[in-house]
Design a protein that fits this description.
182 residues; alpha+beta; Aminopeptidase; eight-stranded mixed β-sheet; 5 helices; 29% strand
Length: 182
């Protein structure tokens, strides 16, 4: 699955596609660290602020990893988990709930629509798999992210404390319409 994209405001054409075996996990991990640096500066210990390449691979293996590529560089990523692989809280344990995670956009391309394209893409994948909703989690203190997800149609469901973080997470979820067939 690939999705050619119109140029974003930087003039770069961005392609969305599944992570390939030839893609660099080092580059992907570096992208995650850069994209989450603002959150780390806020004192939030998201996994992506400090994870190793091994952890990046483990998280990729939990679902389908998609990347955004511009001029041969990885500039965005998102992992989609179908409902059967989504778990961890009362809401996430429901059989009709898919999820997303390890979501990042290069800081130089943030606030230009690429994150929204990645989100729309995995929402489409969730519909294709028959999920009724797609969920995510983020740090409650990252109010800018909570608000952005809210503008994208996600609503607050519950709070969770993960053992690997230093904050309370919010689980947000978005109802999905039926899959659209071409």
């Amino acid at each position: 699955m690939t999705s050619p994209a119109p140029s974003i405001s930087t003039g770069k054409t961005v392609e969305l596609r599944r992570l390939a075996a030839s893609d660099s996990i080092t580059e992907l991990t570096d992208l995650l660290h850069r994209a989450y640096a603002r959150l780390a500066a806020m004192g939030l210990r998201y996994m992506a602020t400090h994870q190793s390449e091994t952890v990046t691979l483990e998280r990729i293996d939990q679902g389908e990893c998609y990347v955004a590529v511009a001029e041969g560089r990885l500039v965005g990523t998102i992992v989609f988990k179908e409902a059967a692989r989504t778990a961890g809280s009362p809401w996430l344990d429901r059989p009709e709930i898919a999820s997303l995670g390890q979501f990042a956009v290069d800081p130089g391309l943030q606030a230009q629509g690429l994150g929204r394209r990645l989100l729309d893409f995995v929402e489409g994948r969730a519909r294709q798999t028959g999920a009724r909703e797609i969920a995510l989690d983020t740090a409650e203190p990252a109010t800018h992210l909570v608000q952005w997800y809210g503008r994208c149609g996600y609503r607050l469901i519950e709070h969770v404390r993960w053992s690997h973080t230093n904050y309370r997470s919010v689980i947000m979820s978005k109802p999905l319409g039926p899959a659209v067939t071409p």
